Amino acid sequence: MSRSRTIDVPGNKAAAPEFLVTPETLDAIAPSGDRGGVIIGSNPQNEAEAASILRPHPTRMVTVGGLYLARQLALRAMATGAWVIIATGRPGAWKVLERAAGQTPDGKPVPLVQIRRLAPFDLPRSTEDTPLLVIHDGGAVPQELFPPRAPWQTTMYVLPYLHPQVSSGTAANTADLVLLQRLPLNQAQLSQRIWSLKNPQVQQLTQLKDDQVIALGNMTWTMIRLVTSKKEQEILGPIRRGD
After folding, report:
1. Which residues, in sequence order, are bridge partners of residue 225?
2. Residue 25, φ and ψ in degrees, nearest 5
3. Which of 8, 35, 170, 180 can pair with 15 through a Cys bridge, CB separation 3.0 to 4.6 Å?
4. CATH of 38-232, one of 1.10.10.10, 3.60.20.10, 3.30.360.10, 3.40.50.300
5. pTM for the full model?
6. Angle at 29 between CA 21 and CA 69, to 5 degrees
7. What pLDDT shows up at residue 167?
8. Exposure pattern of 48-70 as b/e (b: 16+ CB <10 Å)?
9. Which residues contact 198 (CB under 8 A, 6 or more apart)?
10. What is residue 8's predicted lDDT score, i.e. its pLDDT?
11. Percentage of the chain surpassing pLDDT 90?
12. Segment (H or E) for 179
């Protein structure tokens, strides 16, 4: 990728600064994008596409598709020094992040990553020095357990597919950024109703390759090709659409 740009996220008046993590962690996961943004992949012009998802505003984002995309974003948020808390009913699927973060000298997991059960709990305070990414992996119709209420807190909802009830849910309708992987026709048509898409956009969603996503936001419709580093491949395996 020869150049880079940052996807405009509504309300993004300041980009996240750089954060420091241990050299071991940086060696294990991909670096962040320019100006504190998290690199998602490359656009058709071969420019790196980054989004400032860790910012001084409460932020919601949604991924629709397989776990690979969500886990890669979490790894890259870790590279900026963000705390990553995962609320999930399938903790084994997220253990790779815990292993990637490493261990403390006494053999315990580094607290940079926490895997918790899918139930309400108190979140740590998010600040400019310690931004917080809360990952809600609660199925296709997630409950609003951890709405972002504070600056430097981003809540990412991981949806395996689009469900009709999502059209009336808070997560999809109020998301600042949505990342969509390939959808079957009936779900692409549902996305049209949720986000007022045009027919060519619906068709494009059904034709995405395994390594392609659509970034949907305020005045944003960008096709992105996922890219992965050698270290990420060792942690997550090859890029794929499914889990």
Report:
1. 42, 212
2. -70, -45
3. 35
4. 3.40.50.300
5. 0.85
6. 125
7. 65
8. bbbbbbbbbbbbbbbbbbbbbbb
9. 192
10. 54
11. 49
12. strand 177-180
